[in-house]
Amino acid sequence: MDISVVVPTLNGRERLSTCLDALDDHVPDAEVVVVNGPSADGTTGMVRERDDVSALVEVSDRNLNVARNAGIVEATGDVVALVGHDVVVEESWRDGVAEAMADGAAAAAVTGPVHRAVRAGMTTEDRETRTIAGREVTYFAGENVAFERETLESVDGFDENLLTGGARDCAHRLTHQGLSVSWSTDVCVESTDDGEGVDRDWGVKYHALSYRLVKNYGPRLTVFRRTLQDAVEDGTSVAREVVAGDAQPSSWINSGKHVLRNIAAGTRDGVRARVEDRTDARNPAGLSSRADRAVERYDWR
């Protein structure tokens, strides 16, 4: 198995260094492609000083899906993995990927648990599935997944119209093509992200949610029910913060308006995307849509 590991990064120099150390320890035969952009913390210099990185691609877009696609284009392995800069692969990771991707295996992609530190110790994400419009979708962690190259070509990579939710969108499109995502407890990583400093942007979340559901399933009742259900749950959560005195009533009202506006905008954009790409890929802004992502390349292969 020839494996390429794509590591997108943005202003995460120290965590990226830890991630690369783990890859060198546990997957020493991998082709490692770092996609950086646009960082302002010395990431480029740090990567260029290492001897365990195969290629470095600099991009100007602050969009994770652009970085993912740029790395996929650069990678040459028959198996392409995506690993977040804020995770470290564990010792069993490579063997788990190899077993899932072996000849005769049914999986087109494989994912596994992400161990995250919490105050009480450690929490582990379980396999997540959901049935939408009669299809059972198996989601994967965008920071811990490996694909057959043919699979990525079939779905045309990730949708660069999305600022968030690109992995979940890809999972829907894999399911639409009848491609399976397997779950392996051996394909595990540990997160080094403490979760601090993450802003909650309801507008971005609901624009992405409505966009990807409408794009993949059409403007049907089940799609709107799912979107509104999530909005009600989040609205209830904010209401509890208001009652507890942790938020102002005006913020709850403004958040609700923001969510509704972005659901409408996401629905509009999803319909447009569905019309623009009627193929099974359902990806109007994917790998094949452009060839100008990289602004600089360093190749040490």
Describe what you observe in this structure.
The chain is of the alpha/beta class. The chain has two domains: 195 residues, Alpha-Beta Complex (Spore Coat Polysaccharide Biosynthesis Protein SpsA, Chain A), CATH 3.90.550.10; 75 residues, no CATH class. Helices cover 41% and strands 21% of the residues. The strands form three sheets. An eight-stranded mixed β-sheet has the order 12-6-11-4-1-2-3-14, with helices on both faces. Helix 7 runs parallel beside helix 9. The protein is globular, with a radius of gyration of 19 Å.
Write the topology of this structure.
Elements: E1 3-9, H1 13-26, E2 31-36, H2 43-48, E3 55-59, H3 64-74, E4 79-83, E5 87-89, H4 93-100, E6 109-111, E7 114-118, E8 121-124, E9 129-132, E10 135-138, E11 144-148, H5 149-155, H6 166-176, E12 181-183, E13 189-191, H7 202-217, H8 221-243, H9 249-276, E14 294-299
Parallel strand pairs: 1-2, 1-4, 2-3, 6-12, 7-13
Antiparallel strand pairs: 3-14, 4-11, 5-13, 6-11, 7-8, 9-10
